[in-house]
Design goal:
By secondary structure, the protein is α/β, with parallel strands linked by helices. Helix content is 36%, strand content 12%. A seven-stranded mixed β-sheet has the order 4-10-9-8-7-5-6, sandwiched between helices. Helix 4 packs parallel to helix 10 and helix 13 crosses helix 14. It binds pyridoxal-5'-phosphate (PLP). Pyridoxal-5'-phosphate binds next to helix 5.
Length: 447
Protein backbone atom coordinates (compact mmCIF):
# COMPACT_ATOMS: atom_id res chain seq x y z
CA UNK A 1 0.00 0.00 0.00
CA UNK A 2 2.86 2.34 0.86
CA UNK A 3 3.87 3.31 -2.64
CA UNK A 4 4.77 6.91 -2.09
CA UNK A 5 8.12 7.67 -3.67
CA UNK A 6 10.69 9.36 -1.50
CA UNK A 7 11.58 12.98 -2.06
CA UNK A 8 13.91 15.56 -0.63
CA UNK A 9 13.46 19.03 -2.06
CA UNK A 10 17.13 19.91 -2.04
CA UNK A 11 18.44 16.75 -3.60
CA UNK A 12 15.50 16.62 -5.99
CA UNK A 13 16.29 20.07 -7.30
CA UNK A 14 19.98 19.18 -7.38
CA UNK A 15 19.11 16.05 -9.34
CA UNK A 16 17.35 18.25 -11.84
CA UNK A 17 13.82 17.18 -11.01
CA UNK A 18 11.32 19.86 -12.00
CA UNK A 19 8.16 17.93 -11.10
CA UNK A 20 5.77 19.81 -8.81
CA UNK A 21 4.70 16.53 -7.22
CA UNK A 22 7.33 14.10 -5.95
CA UNK A 23 8.32 11.53 -8.53
CA UNK A 24 10.84 9.79 -6.33
CA UNK A 25 14.29 11.05 -7.16
CA UNK A 26 15.50 11.98 -3.70
CA UNK A 27 15.30 11.11 -0.02
CA UNK A 28 12.27 12.28 1.95
CA UNK A 29 12.39 14.22 5.17
CA UNK A 30 9.46 15.85 7.01
CA UNK A 31 11.78 17.98 9.09
CA UNK A 32 13.79 19.28 6.12
CA UNK A 33 10.64 20.23 4.22
CA UNK A 34 9.08 21.88 7.25
CA UNK A 35 12.24 23.86 7.94
CA UNK A 36 12.39 24.93 4.31
CA UNK A 37 8.69 25.91 4.35
CA UNK A 38 9.29 28.09 7.39
CA UNK A 39 11.78 30.12 5.34
CA UNK A 40 9.01 31.03 2.92
CA UNK A 41 5.83 30.80 4.99
CA UNK A 42 5.45 32.22 8.54
CA UNK A 43 5.68 29.25 10.89
CA UNK A 44 5.80 26.96 7.86
CA UNK A 45 2.00 26.75 7.68
CA UNK A 46 -0.88 28.46 5.95
CA UNK A 47 -3.35 27.76 8.75
CA UNK A 48 -1.97 28.24 12.24
CA UNK A 49 -3.17 25.03 13.89
CA UNK A 50 -1.24 22.90 11.41
CA UNK A 51 2.02 23.95 13.10
CA UNK A 52 1.45 21.59 16.10
CA UNK A 53 2.05 24.48 18.48
CA UNK A 54 -0.52 23.26 21.01
CA UNK A 55 0.60 19.61 20.96
CA UNK A 56 4.34 20.16 20.47
CA UNK A 57 6.62 18.72 17.83
CA UNK A 58 6.57 19.31 14.10
CA UNK A 59 3.93 18.49 11.52
CA UNK A 60 4.13 15.64 9.06
CA UNK A 61 4.22 16.94 5.50
CA UNK A 62 1.55 15.28 3.37
CA UNK A 63 2.57 13.96 -0.01
CA UNK A 64 -0.82 12.53 -0.96
CA UNK A 65 -3.97 10.91 0.30
CA UNK A 66 -6.13 8.01 -0.72
CA UNK A 67 -9.46 7.20 0.90
CA UNK A 68 -9.06 7.11 4.68
CA UNK A 69 -5.27 7.38 4.43
CA UNK A 70 -2.66 10.03 4.02
CA UNK A 71 1.01 9.46 3.25
CA UNK A 72 3.71 11.79 4.45
CA UNK A 73 6.76 12.62 2.35
CA UNK A 74 8.75 9.95 4.19
CA UNK A 75 6.32 7.32 2.96
CA UNK A 76 4.63 6.75 6.32
CA UNK A 77 0.95 5.96 6.07
CA UNK A 78 -1.63 7.33 8.54
CA UNK A 79 -5.31 6.68 9.05
CA UNK A 80 -6.56 10.23 8.70
CA UNK A 81 -9.13 11.56 11.18
CA UNK A 82 -8.52 15.16 10.11
CA UNK A 83 -10.03 14.88 6.62
CA UNK A 84 -9.17 18.52 5.96
CA UNK A 85 -11.03 19.52 9.16
CA UNK A 86 -14.19 18.11 7.69
CA UNK A 87 -13.93 19.50 4.16
CA UNK A 88 -13.27 16.04 2.77
CA UNK A 89 -16.14 13.62 3.33
CA UNK A 90 -15.74 11.06 0.53
CA UNK A 91 -12.16 10.27 1.53
CA UNK A 92 -9.05 11.55 -0.23
CA UNK A 93 -8.76 11.49 -4.02
CA UNK A 94 -12.24 10.01 -4.47
CA UNK A 95 -12.78 9.12 -8.10
CA UNK A 96 -15.98 11.16 -8.42
CA UNK A 97 -14.17 14.32 -7.31
CA UNK A 98 -11.02 13.69 -9.31
CA UNK A 99 -12.85 13.07 -12.56
CA UNK A 100 -15.17 16.06 -12.05
CA UNK A 101 -12.09 18.21 -11.51
CA UNK A 102 -10.32 16.92 -14.59
CA UNK A 103 -13.39 17.63 -16.71
CA UNK A 104 -13.86 21.09 -15.23
CA UNK A 105 -10.18 22.03 -15.47
CA UNK A 106 -10.05 21.19 -19.12
CA UNK A 107 -12.93 23.63 -19.70
CA UNK A 108 -10.98 26.48 -18.10
CA UNK A 109 -10.49 27.43 -14.49
CA UNK A 110 -12.13 30.85 -14.03
CA UNK A 111 -13.91 33.34 -16.26
CA UNK A 112 -15.42 36.29 -14.44
CA UNK A 113 -18.79 35.44 -15.95
CA UNK A 114 -21.61 33.14 -14.80
CA UNK A 115 -21.18 29.41 -15.49
CA UNK A 116 -23.56 26.42 -15.44
CA UNK A 117 -21.60 24.65 -12.71
CA UNK A 118 -22.18 27.36 -10.09
CA UNK A 119 -25.88 27.38 -10.96
CA UNK A 120 -26.02 23.61 -10.47
CA UNK A 121 -24.29 23.71 -7.09
CA UNK A 122 -26.58 26.51 -5.88
CA UNK A 123 -29.57 24.46 -7.06
CA UNK A 124 -28.24 21.34 -5.34
CA UNK A 125 -27.93 23.23 -2.03
CA UNK A 126 -31.38 24.79 -2.43
CA UNK A 127 -32.95 21.40 -3.15
CA UNK A 128 -31.46 19.87 -0.02
CA UNK A 129 -31.79 22.77 2.43
CA UNK A 130 -35.28 24.32 2.21
CA UNK A 131 -34.39 27.50 4.14
CA UNK A 132 -32.00 28.38 1.31
CA UNK A 133 -34.29 29.76 -1.36
CA UNK A 134 -31.33 31.67 -2.72
CA UNK A 135 -27.64 30.79 -2.43
CA UNK A 136 -24.58 33.00 -3.01
CA UNK A 137 -21.27 31.21 -3.54
CA UNK A 138 -17.91 32.52 -2.37
CA UNK A 139 -14.45 31.25 -1.46
CA UNK A 140 -14.27 30.28 2.20
CA UNK A 141 -16.27 29.75 5.34
CA UNK A 142 -14.69 32.93 6.67
CA UNK A 143 -16.06 34.88 3.74
CA UNK A 144 -19.46 33.27 4.31
CA UNK A 145 -19.69 34.34 7.97
CA UNK A 146 -18.42 37.86 7.27
CA UNK A 147 -20.88 38.23 4.40
CA UNK A 148 -23.72 36.84 6.52
CA UNK A 149 -22.99 39.41 9.23
CA UNK A 150 -22.89 42.24 6.68
CA UNK A 151 -26.11 40.98 5.10
CA UNK A 152 -27.88 40.77 8.47
CA UNK A 153 -26.76 44.27 9.40
CA UNK A 154 -27.78 45.62 6.01
CA UNK A 155 -31.13 43.85 6.03
CA UNK A 156 -32.08 44.96 9.54
CA UNK A 157 -30.36 48.36 9.69
CA UNK A 158 -28.95 47.30 13.09
CA UNK A 159 -25.36 46.90 14.28
CA UNK A 160 -25.15 44.44 17.15
CA UNK A 161 -24.22 40.79 16.67
CA UNK A 162 -24.53 38.07 19.30
CA UNK A 163 -22.02 35.19 19.20
CA UNK A 164 -21.40 32.27 21.54
CA UNK A 165 -18.28 31.63 23.55
CA UNK A 166 -16.40 28.71 22.03
CA UNK A 167 -18.11 28.91 18.65
CA UNK A 168 -15.74 29.58 15.78
CA UNK A 169 -16.71 31.44 12.65
CA UNK A 170 -13.39 31.75 10.82
CA UNK A 171 -10.96 34.63 10.63
CA UNK A 172 -13.56 37.41 10.48
CA UNK A 173 -12.62 40.48 12.54
CA UNK A 174 -16.10 41.12 13.96
CA UNK A 175 -16.37 37.48 15.01
CA UNK A 176 -12.95 37.19 16.66
CA UNK A 177 -14.09 38.72 19.94
CA UNK A 178 -13.39 35.38 21.64
CA UNK A 179 -13.55 32.01 20.02
CA UNK A 180 -12.98 28.31 19.82
CA UNK A 181 -10.71 26.34 17.50
CA UNK A 182 -7.20 27.75 17.10
CA UNK A 183 -8.02 30.78 19.20
CA UNK A 184 -9.10 28.68 22.15
CA UNK A 185 -6.13 26.41 21.73
CA UNK A 186 -3.77 29.35 22.00
CA UNK A 187 -5.73 30.58 24.99
CA UNK A 188 -5.94 34.22 23.86
CA UNK A 189 -9.08 36.33 23.92
CA UNK A 190 -9.63 37.38 20.33
CA UNK A 191 -6.38 38.14 18.57
CA UNK A 192 -3.87 40.91 18.00
CA UNK A 193 -4.72 43.01 14.99
CA UNK A 194 -8.43 43.33 15.71
CA UNK A 195 -9.16 46.81 17.05
CA UNK A 196 -11.71 47.20 19.83
CA UNK A 197 -13.91 49.08 17.40
CA UNK A 198 -14.17 46.00 15.17
CA UNK A 199 -15.75 43.99 17.99
CA UNK A 200 -17.52 46.88 19.72
CA UNK A 201 -20.85 45.61 18.40
CA UNK A 202 -20.14 41.95 19.08
CA UNK A 203 -21.67 40.46 22.22
CA UNK A 204 -20.24 37.09 23.31
CA UNK A 205 -22.50 34.92 25.46
CA UNK A 206 -22.28 31.35 26.82
CA UNK A 207 -23.27 28.53 24.50
CA UNK A 208 -26.48 26.61 25.16
CA UNK A 209 -28.24 29.44 27.00
CA UNK A 210 -30.76 31.57 25.10
CA UNK A 211 -29.59 35.16 25.67
CA UNK A 212 -31.56 38.35 26.07
CA UNK A 213 -31.82 39.84 22.59
CA UNK A 214 -32.25 43.60 22.45
CA UNK A 215 -34.01 45.25 19.56
CA UNK A 216 -30.71 46.76 18.45
CA UNK A 217 -29.44 43.26 17.55
CA UNK A 218 -29.06 42.53 13.83
CA UNK A 219 -28.31 38.84 14.20
CA UNK A 220 -27.46 35.95 16.43
CA UNK A 221 -24.82 33.72 14.82
CA UNK A 222 -24.41 30.21 16.18
CA UNK A 223 -22.85 26.86 15.37
CA UNK A 224 -26.02 24.76 15.72
CA UNK A 225 -23.77 21.88 16.72
CA UNK A 226 -20.57 23.31 18.16
CA UNK A 227 -17.61 21.55 16.55
CA UNK A 228 -14.73 23.88 17.34
CA UNK A 229 -14.63 23.34 21.13
CA UNK A 230 -14.61 19.61 20.77
CA UNK A 231 -18.11 18.56 19.81
CA UNK A 232 -20.88 20.09 21.91
CA UNK A 233 -24.49 19.27 21.14
CA UNK A 234 -27.17 21.95 21.37
CA UNK A 235 -29.14 21.54 24.60
CA UNK A 236 -32.79 20.58 24.24
CA UNK A 237 -34.74 23.70 23.31
CA UNK A 238 -31.66 25.88 22.72
CA UNK A 239 -31.99 26.29 18.96
CA UNK A 240 -35.80 26.60 19.13
CA UNK A 241 -35.34 29.16 21.89
CA UNK A 242 -32.96 31.19 19.73
CA UNK A 243 -35.46 31.10 16.87
CA UNK A 244 -38.26 32.38 19.09
CA UNK A 245 -36.10 35.04 20.77
CA UNK A 246 -34.83 36.31 17.40
CA UNK A 247 -38.37 36.52 16.06
CA UNK A 248 -39.48 38.46 19.10
CA UNK A 249 -36.59 40.94 18.82
CA UNK A 250 -36.73 41.24 15.03
CA UNK A 251 -33.19 39.88 14.76
CA UNK A 252 -32.01 37.41 12.15
CA UNK A 253 -30.83 33.93 13.12
CA UNK A 254 -27.64 32.84 11.35
CA UNK A 255 -26.65 29.18 11.49
CA UNK A 256 -22.95 28.70 10.84
CA UNK A 257 -23.15 25.28 9.23
CA UNK A 258 -19.66 25.43 7.73
CA UNK A 259 -18.90 22.15 9.51
CA UNK A 260 -22.36 20.70 10.11
CA UNK A 261 -23.73 21.46 6.64
CA UNK A 262 -23.81 18.26 4.55
CA UNK A 263 -21.81 16.58 7.33
CA UNK A 264 -24.62 15.76 9.76
CA UNK A 265 -26.93 14.87 6.91
CA UNK A 266 -28.41 16.29 3.73
CA UNK A 267 -30.23 19.12 5.49
CA UNK A 268 -27.49 19.83 8.05
CA UNK A 269 -28.21 20.69 11.68
CA UNK A 270 -31.31 22.68 10.74
CA UNK A 271 -32.96 19.50 9.43
CA UNK A 272 -31.75 17.38 12.34
CA UNK A 273 -33.16 19.81 14.92
CA UNK A 274 -35.98 21.16 12.75
CA UNK A 275 -35.18 24.84 13.28
CA UNK A 276 -35.15 27.17 10.27
CA UNK A 277 -32.50 29.91 10.32
CA UNK A 278 -32.76 33.11 8.28
CA UNK A 279 -29.25 32.77 6.90
CA UNK A 280 -27.05 29.67 6.67
CA UNK A 281 -23.28 29.72 6.19
CA UNK A 282 -21.65 26.83 4.35
CA UNK A 283 -18.10 25.83 3.46
CA UNK A 284 -15.99 22.70 3.82
CA UNK A 285 -18.06 19.77 2.41
CA UNK A 286 -19.77 21.81 -0.33
CA UNK A 287 -16.40 22.34 -2.03
CA UNK A 288 -15.41 18.67 -2.17
CA UNK A 289 -12.01 19.66 -0.74
CA UNK A 290 -11.58 22.83 -2.82
CA UNK A 291 -11.79 26.39 -1.47
CA UNK A 292 -15.43 27.42 -1.12
CA UNK A 293 -18.02 29.14 1.04
CA UNK A 294 -21.67 30.01 0.58
CA UNK A 295 -24.55 31.69 2.29
CA UNK A 296 -28.18 30.81 1.75
CA UNK A 297 -31.47 32.16 3.02
CA UNK A 298 -34.94 33.26 2.16
CA UNK A 299 -35.38 35.14 -1.07
CA UNK A 300 -36.38 38.32 0.78
CA UNK A 301 -33.25 38.34 2.96
CA UNK A 302 -30.84 37.22 0.23
CA UNK A 303 -32.08 39.85 -2.21
CA UNK A 304 -30.58 42.52 0.04
CA UNK A 305 -27.29 41.46 -1.60
CA UNK A 306 -25.99 43.39 -4.59
CA UNK A 307 -26.80 43.53 -7.48
CA UNK A 308 -30.46 43.47 -6.37
CA UNK A 309 -30.09 45.09 -2.96
CA UNK A 310 -27.61 47.38 -1.27
CA UNK A 311 -25.37 44.97 0.69
CA UNK A 312 -22.17 44.57 -1.27
CA UNK A 313 -20.71 41.22 -2.11
CA UNK A 314 -18.27 40.27 -4.87
CA UNK A 315 -15.39 37.89 -5.52
CA UNK A 316 -13.05 37.32 -8.45
CA UNK A 317 -13.13 33.55 -7.96
CA UNK A 318 -16.61 33.28 -6.39
CA UNK A 319 -18.53 30.35 -7.87
CA UNK A 320 -15.26 28.99 -9.19
CA UNK A 321 -15.65 26.26 -11.86
CA UNK A 322 -13.32 23.79 -10.14
CA UNK A 323 -14.69 24.31 -6.63
CA UNK A 324 -18.28 24.04 -7.82
CA UNK A 325 -17.50 20.95 -9.91
CA UNK A 326 -15.90 19.21 -6.92
CA UNK A 327 -18.68 20.34 -4.60
CA UNK A 328 -21.40 19.13 -6.90
CA UNK A 329 -19.65 15.79 -7.34
CA UNK A 330 -19.49 15.44 -3.54
CA UNK A 331 -23.14 16.33 -3.00
CA UNK A 332 -24.18 13.88 -5.71
CA UNK A 333 -22.46 11.05 -3.83
CA UNK A 334 -24.01 11.99 -0.49
CA UNK A 335 -27.19 9.96 -0.29
CA UNK A 336 -29.12 9.24 2.94
CA UNK A 337 -27.48 5.79 2.97
CA UNK A 338 -24.04 7.37 3.05
CA UNK A 339 -25.00 9.44 6.09
CA UNK A 340 -26.38 6.34 7.82
CA UNK A 341 -23.05 4.66 7.24
CA UNK A 342 -21.06 7.70 8.39
CA UNK A 343 -23.13 7.91 11.59
CA UNK A 344 -22.44 4.26 12.30
CA UNK A 345 -18.73 4.83 11.67
CA UNK A 346 -18.73 7.86 13.96
CA UNK A 347 -20.28 5.80 16.76
CA UNK A 348 -17.78 3.04 16.06
CA UNK A 349 -14.87 5.51 16.23
CA UNK A 350 -16.11 6.83 19.57
CA UNK A 351 -16.50 3.29 20.92
CA UNK A 352 -12.99 2.35 19.80
CA UNK A 353 -11.44 5.41 21.44
CA UNK A 354 -13.55 5.03 24.58
CA UNK A 355 -12.54 1.37 24.97
CA UNK A 356 -8.88 2.10 24.26
CA UNK A 357 -8.76 4.90 26.84
CA UNK A 358 -10.82 2.98 29.40
CA UNK A 359 -8.60 -0.08 29.18
CA UNK A 360 -5.51 2.09 29.71
CA UNK A 361 -7.16 3.99 32.57
CA UNK A 362 -7.30 7.33 30.72
CA UNK A 363 -10.25 9.52 31.70
CA UNK A 364 -11.87 10.55 28.43
CA UNK A 365 -15.23 11.11 26.78
CA UNK A 366 -15.95 10.88 23.08
CA UNK A 367 -19.29 12.59 22.46
CA UNK A 368 -21.04 11.80 19.19
CA UNK A 369 -23.52 14.06 17.43
CA UNK A 370 -24.64 12.39 14.22
CA UNK A 371 -21.48 11.97 12.16
CA UNK A 372 -19.35 14.22 14.39
CA UNK A 373 -17.10 12.91 17.15
CA UNK A 374 -15.39 14.98 19.85
CA UNK A 375 -12.53 14.07 22.19
CA UNK A 376 -12.70 15.37 25.75
CA UNK A 377 -10.13 14.32 28.33
CA UNK A 378 -12.13 14.87 31.47
CA UNK A 379 -15.06 13.54 33.45
CA UNK A 380 -18.23 15.09 32.11
CA UNK A 381 -19.20 15.71 28.51
CA UNK A 382 -19.06 19.51 28.11
CA UNK A 383 -22.10 21.63 27.30
CA UNK A 384 -20.31 24.98 26.85
CA UNK A 385 -16.85 26.44 26.42
CA UNK A 386 -16.01 26.79 30.12
CA UNK A 387 -16.66 23.09 30.53
CA UNK A 388 -14.86 22.23 27.28
CA UNK A 389 -11.76 24.03 28.57
CA UNK A 390 -11.58 21.57 31.45
CA UNK A 391 -10.18 19.03 28.99
CA UNK A 392 -6.71 17.78 29.91
CA UNK A 393 -4.78 19.39 27.05
CA UNK A 394 -1.55 17.70 28.10
CA UNK A 395 -3.23 14.30 27.94
CA UNK A 396 -4.63 15.17 24.53
CA UNK A 397 -1.15 16.06 23.29
CA UNK A 398 0.31 12.84 24.71
CA UNK A 399 -2.44 10.72 23.19
CA UNK A 400 -2.19 12.63 19.91
CA UNK A 401 1.53 11.85 19.57
CA UNK A 402 1.04 8.23 20.63
CA UNK A 403 -1.64 7.86 17.95
CA UNK A 404 0.58 9.53 15.38
CA UNK A 405 3.38 7.07 16.14
CA UNK A 406 0.86 4.27 15.65
CA UNK A 407 -0.14 5.70 12.28
CA UNK A 408 -3.33 7.58 13.17
CA UNK A 409 -3.57 11.31 12.45
CA UNK A 410 -5.88 13.35 14.67
CA UNK A 411 -6.09 17.14 14.59
CA UNK A 412 -3.15 18.79 16.41
CA UNK A 413 -5.38 20.61 18.88
CA UNK A 414 -7.53 19.52 21.81
CA UNK A 415 -10.63 21.40 20.63
CA UNK A 416 -11.08 19.95 17.14
CA UNK A 417 -13.58 17.34 16.02
CA UNK A 418 -12.58 13.94 14.68
CA UNK A 419 -13.80 13.11 11.20
CA UNK A 420 -14.60 9.86 9.50
CA UNK A 421 -15.36 9.68 5.82
CA UNK A 422 -16.56 7.27 3.18
CA UNK A 423 -13.04 5.80 3.04
CA UNK A 424 -13.14 4.55 6.64
CA UNK A 425 -14.20 0.96 5.98
CA UNK A 426 -14.19 -2.13 8.21
CA UNK A 427 -10.54 -2.90 7.58
CA UNK A 428 -9.50 0.66 8.44
CA UNK A 429 -11.60 0.69 11.61
CA UNK A 430 -10.09 -2.64 12.66
CA UNK A 431 -6.57 -1.24 12.28
CA UNK A 432 -7.63 1.94 14.01
CA UNK A 433 -8.87 -0.07 16.99
CA UNK A 434 -5.59 -1.91 17.36
CA UNK A 435 -3.58 1.28 16.95
CA UNK A 436 -5.71 3.15 19.50
CA UNK A 437 -5.25 0.45 22.13
CA UNK A 438 -1.48 0.48 21.70
CA UNK A 439 -1.45 4.28 21.66
CA UNK A 440 -3.52 4.59 24.83
CA UNK A 441 -1.25 2.14 26.65
CA UNK A 442 1.85 4.01 25.55
CA UNK A 443 0.30 7.41 26.38
CA UNK A 444 -0.19 6.23 29.95
CA UNK A 445 3.42 5.06 30.16
CA UNK A 446 4.61 8.40 28.72
CA UNK A 447 2.86 10.42 31.44
C1 LIG B 1 -14.01 26.05 9.34
C2 LIG B 1 -15.06 26.94 9.88
C3 LIG B 1 -15.20 28.26 9.45
C4 LIG B 1 -14.19 28.93 8.56
O1 LIG B 1 -14.16 28.37 7.28
P1 LIG B 1 -12.85 28.60 6.38
O2 LIG B 1 -13.20 27.97 5.08
O3 LIG B 1 -11.73 27.94 7.11
O4 LIG B 1 -12.66 30.07 6.27
C5 LIG B 1 -16.29 28.98 9.89
N1 LIG B 1 -17.19 28.44 10.73
C6 LIG B 1 -17.08 27.17 11.17
C7 LIG B 1 -18.13 26.62 12.06
C8 LIG B 1 -16.00 26.38 10.77
O5 LIG B 1 -15.87 25.16 11.25
Amino acid sequence: MSMIPLCDPTSCVAAGCTATVCVGKGIANNHALYTRSAEAIPGGVNSSIRAFKSVGGEPYIVARGEGAHIFDVEGKRYIDLVQSYGAVILGHAHRAITSALVAAASDGTSFGAPTPREMKLAEAIRERVPSCERVRLMNSGTEATSTAVRLARGATGRKKIITFHGNFHGATDALLAAGGSGVATLGIPGTAGVPEEAVANTIVVPYNVVPEIGNDVAAVIVEPVAANMGVVAPAAGFLEGLRAACDKAGALLIFDEVISGFRLGLGGAQAKYDVRPDITCFGKVIGGGLPIGAIGGSRSVMEHLTPIGKVFHAGTLAGNPLATAAGLAALNELTPDVYMELSARARQLATILRDACASAGIVAQFPVVGTLVGAFFGNDIPTNFDEAKLTNEKMYATFFHAMLREGVAMAPGAYEALFVGVGHDDAVMQQLGEAAHRAAASAVRAQ
